[in-house]
Amino acid sequence: MLVCEMMKSEHLNNLSPANLRQLIRQKDPRIKTTTGLANGYQQANVVVLPNQLADDFHAFCRSNPAPLPLLYRSQSGETSCPPLAQHADIRTDISQYCVYEDGRLVKTVSSLQTYSDAHRSPPGQQAERPGSWSDMVCFYLGCSFGFEGRLKEAGVPVRNVEQGRNVSMYRTAVPCVPAGAFSCPLVVTMRPVPAALLDAAVKVTHLNPLAHGAPVHIGDPALLGIQDLSRPDYGDAVELQPGDVTVFWACGVTAIEAILSSKPPLAFSHSPGCMFLTDIPDSPTSTITPPTEAKPHPELTPLCFQVSQNPLLYSLVSQGTAAKIRQLEVMIGEDPGERGIRALFVQDELLRSCLALSHSSSVAITTGFPTHYMHSPPDETDGPPGAIAMATMLLSLGKQVTMVTDRRALEMNRTIIDEAVRTGVLKDAIPLVTFEDGGPDAARHFLCHHGDPNKPRFDHLVAIERSGRAADGNYYNMRAVNIKHLVDPVDDLFIAAKHIPGIGTTGIGDGGNELGMGKVKEKVQSLMPKGGLIACEVPADHAVTAGVSNWGGYAVACGLYLLHTCPAHLRYLRKGLGLEPVTSTEQLQDWTTNLPSVEKEESFLSTLVRFGIRSGKTGHLAMEVDGLTFHPTHSDMITRLLEATRGGRGTF
Predict the structure, then answer these.
(1) Which region is the signal sequence (predicted)?
(2) Confidence of residue 298 (pLDDT cuts 50, 70, 90)
(3) Among 312, 334, 418, 624, which is 20 to 30 Å from 528 by CA?
């Protein structure tokens, strides 16, 4: 009794999980939720189900490891959990339980002991009736409360603890992977995190896969189907502070949604926020690891990058994969043509573009620089090969791809695409469309169904070596010759996209007069030859600069491949749902086949030359791009990009 009184007089934050369980068992009124308690130890969501549903729910956990990291599955009727806690009784050691009948929450109780006693069979009967405790199986699932202490140690504020509130929990529009009788939407917790501390928050939580691991979404809650942060489905509303970003982790309350949807005759769970406190340290070296979650590895540690402002979206990529894509970015920045392109370089534009494209579903690509105004056709060999390389990889990743071209070049490009299919450079033909000036709303109607900004046709636009509009409204080649009469106003699409939520843009260029290079306009004007006149005025969200624009397209294709073989990025894309952290061997082989190659690029360049398309710098009708012969300059670059890409396969 004296020990109990001493515990009651001590501050709850200083007590061990075992002492806290004892107070909970005694109905200590100070313990309403367990947020902020037992720092340094795992907490657990608890679900108690009839034995006949146990295998299905076990499979459901394995299929959805982020929301449902399984710590322990009990035997039928077992009330203790020796691997997690000593001298525990799951019927009494949670401050509040939920009781469900036929998928309906019928009441909350402070103990299941009396409930289970009431279901014992009458004297003289050997077996208990269906629904008795002996027929029930307990599942203990990791909880994000287990990493809150680590967040504070890393200097990341935990707003719900600061505000004395339960964490906010939301039902999303994201479906979990179904298994047997169980199918339900993903539930997430939300914790506001200062933008400058996002990497710290991601790193700390990544190290604890038993407590849901790294976030599954960072940014606009509407992208998860959450319309009102002030009205959580579970827990309390938590106030954001200036500079905070909404960060969402998968949540074990997903299991409660599974109970509601599967409608078992009888089931129990913890009440959201009232967790079971284990004696297991919240350490990545814990011996309990979900079979579908890999043990943390330094090179797998995710980094956080903003990829969109409207809507706000961040993405995750492992340190190792980010390093590989940065290596690609350095390679394509080489300047054998001595144009001074290095002056326009901005680090991580390639990485951010690849991340944005990875999150996209429908991409429009445009190219075409009619620099040879005295020839027919006036186009150059830089641009189309890089565009086709990106399109090929995007298609293999399941994205929709549309090519946008000038009216004057429509039939020629259609024939070139058909030839690329015939020669095996492309698997299937790509839709080819034009955009011409049709009034002030033409761009919006082109980009959106029925002109409705809430219904965009595309979520990303890419311009590669596409002539860009200068400040005076004209279009100039590198010799400062106005070629406006040969260019349709595709720039208007990039301008309109700025005002349509959900459409991102990328520009790839090698001189500063290309569409999208308006993002680095000041550098072009001051550092590039004739930059004050030729600089493109129209910006893109991401401006990828390269010694030759085609190289930028090749690097985007390689970067997308690396992202889709990166477990940290794939997990984030899938919201932690799905059996495999990486893709199947067949899918990997398909992506590998669809990378650029020397053979494919040489074949496609020869097709362009046959159609009379010339080298940009010299005007030669030859196997060269920007005055540089395909062998050895371009073939060597492709080989090096592939070596850097495929050399990293499966490592990061």
Answers:
(1) none
(2) low
(3) 624
Structure tokens at 245: 């970003």
Residue 453 to residue 449: CA distance in whole angstroms: 8
What is the dihedral angle through the alpha carbons of 648, 599, 595, 539, rounded to the nearest 10 degrees?
110
Amino acid at 428: D
In angstroms, the CA 211 to CA 42 distance is 7
SS3 labels along 72-95: EECCCCCCCECCCECCCCCCCCCC
| Other CB atoms within 10 A of residue 363 CB | 23
The residue ranges of DSSP E strands in 128-195, in sequence order, are 136-142, 168-175, 185-194
pLDDT tens for 408-417 read 999 999 999 9
> Please, are residues 405 and 432 in contact by the beta-carbon 8 Å criterion?
yes
Cβ contacts of residue 124 below 8 Å, gap of 6+? none
Q: Which 3 state secondary structure label does DSSP give 172?
A: strand
Which has more pLDDT, 145 or 568? 568
Task: Put residue 273 in one of left, alpha, beta given phi > 0 → left and psi -120 to 50 → alpha.
Answer: left
Q: Give me 124's structure tokens.
A: 């003289």
Q: In the structure encoding, which two tokens stand for residue 468, read together?
A: 């860009």
pLDDT at residue 231, as a whole number: 97
Does residue 199 contact residue 209 with C-beta atoms inside 8 Å? no
DSSP 239: P
pTM: 0.91
3-state secondary structure 371-417: CCCCCCCCCECCCHHHHHHHHHHHHHCCCEEEEEECHHHHHHHHHHH
pLDDT band at 1 (very low <50, low <70, confident <90, very high): very low
Q: 79-109: string of b/e by CB count within 10 Å (b at 16+)? A: bbbeebbeebbbbbbbbbbbbbeeeeeeeeb
Tokens encoding 127: 């077996």
3-state secondary structure (DSSP) of residue 543: strand
Distance from C-alpha of 416 to C-alpha of 371, rounded to nearest angstrom: 19
Phi and psi for 641 in degrees, rounded to 5? -60, -40
pLDDT tens, residue by residue, 18-57:
999 999 999 999 998 898 888 889 999 999 999 999 999 9
321/327 Cα distance (integer angstroms)? 10
DSSP character string of 350-379 = HHHHHHHHHT-SEEEEEEE----TTSSS--
Helix (H, G, I), strand (E, B) or coil at 434: strand
Q: Which amino acid is at 204?
A: V
CA distances from 584 to 52, 60, 105, 565, 587 (A): 32, 20, 40, 10, 5
Rounded Cα gap, residues 293 and 66, in angstroms: 8
Q: Which of 473, 488, 486, 493 is nearest to 535 (CA)?
A: 473
pLDDT score of 583: 58
CA distance 203 to 199: 6
